[in-house]
Amino acid sequence: MDERRRRGLDMMGEVYGWEVGDGHGDFFALTADHLFGEIWTRPGLSLRDRRLLLIGMLAGQGLNDVLDIQIPAALANGEVSADELREIGIFLLHYVGWPLGSKLCVQIDTLIAKHEKAQRKKAQKENGEEGSEGKG
What does pTM read for this prediction? Predict the structure, then answer.
């Protein structure tokens, strides 16, 4: 595997929040090598900056299925807090329109709740409290 593909796969993993395996074909090469290996790794914008731009674009187009990937990854990577995400939803609500923005705000709250539940479960497991789920 060449260095450009490795860089692209590493960045894909960071952006998506899971390890991405190598693929084949022209579409995968353009995605991994060019988009993630060259565009996402360019200097000038942080990963957080790029993620925020992407979230705004996705919200504006109503691409909530992709937001289901991007929002949890942003939370997991610590790029945004739950409060910042809620503020993003309120801000975008006024630019993408009430129907799309309302859906986004509900989606953000739902994904934050899932993230926080997973964090609590992880903490309980690390503290040996596996049997105490659901108690607070």
Answer: 0.82
